[in-house]
Amino acid sequence: LKLQFLYLIVLFPQRVSTRTMAPNAAGTKVDLQAVMAAAAEQLDEHEKAPTHASTVLANLLAHAPSDAHVFDVLAHSYRVSQACGLPPGVAGIPGKNLLSKGYAEYAVRYPRVEPEGITDEQRKEMKLNAMGEWKDLSDLLGNAVKMLMSRVDDAGK
Length: 157
Prior knowledge:
Blueprint: H1 2-11, H2 32-41, H3 53-63, H4 69-84, H5 96-109, H6 120-155
Helix pairs in contact: 1-6, 2-3, 2-5, 3-5, 4-6
């Protein structure tokens, strides 16, 4: 299923809805291009070099069609990460610092809203239940970014 989703991203990079996603749990509309643009501004100086992977990824996201599938992957990954209280597990992929800063920016702009009256035990169980999905979506996000970056490498040849 994950592999099929990645093929869809590559073969059909646009989807029907827009980057301004459906409301999140708090009822707030999410604009991931704005989140990632703010994250790009927070990069360290050496990461702002035009050929650095984080800058290349930031430029790809900034110029991606507003309805590109990569925003779906980012949104789902960030939402599940927020439910677990962990940033996406994207170590070892190009642009990982941009994705980490994007997650931090997402968490600031769209704080997680928990149901009222939830106990600590229920909260812990919710986090544990989300961990498997967190791992799968972190892997999916990493693969999507690698595929996106490989398109840049292929275009440069």
